[in-house]
Amino acid sequence: MNKLAFAATAALLTGCIVTSVHPFYTSKDVVFEPALLGQWTNTQQSDERWTFEKEAQNFYLLTQVSGNETNLTQVHLFKFAGQMFMDLAGVDQKCNAMPPPIPSHLVLRVFQLGPTLRMAPLNHDWLKALLEKEPKALQHELIGDKPDDSRVVLTADTPELQRFLSNHLKTDDAWKDPLELKRN
User: Fold this and answer.
1) What one-character-per-residue DSSP string does 14-50 give?
2) What is the pLDDT averaged over residues 25-45?
3) How far is CA 150 from its chain centroid?
4) pTM of the predicted model, to two decimals?
């Protein structure tokens, strides 16, 4: 998983992260926003820096530095259902480990690009509780040895993921605990 932006800042400071085996975007959804480029600092952890660089036509390379650790992540910014999101995926997909790691995606909902970057992941605890009540709400697997320690891995395809996101844009608990970055 390439630490997926330090597990999205340690699940944005608390809890687990929701990963998906499929991207949350289609090529028609991807946008490039120059305002994202540059270096940002986590307003809650001043030693954590996120640097977005243009990697190709419509995606970014994110270098996240926190303490002595550096992580590289591919980021696709996309608009869907009138909202902006980021899909983060590990850069090092050519691992020689056996069995090879499964590439994964993490979604962040972008609430604001400026003057601060404000975003939140899909809330793992909310999603896990929803899927326990409604297992058919979204294709998924629970990974882990114990039910209390399990985490949600989404196996739904991109159209199903997008339908789910669209259905829960107004669900406050789905997008709580935002992360805020300020420009350096």
Assistant:
1) SS---EESS-S--TTTB---GGG-EEEEESS-TTEEE
2) 96
3) 18
4) 0.87
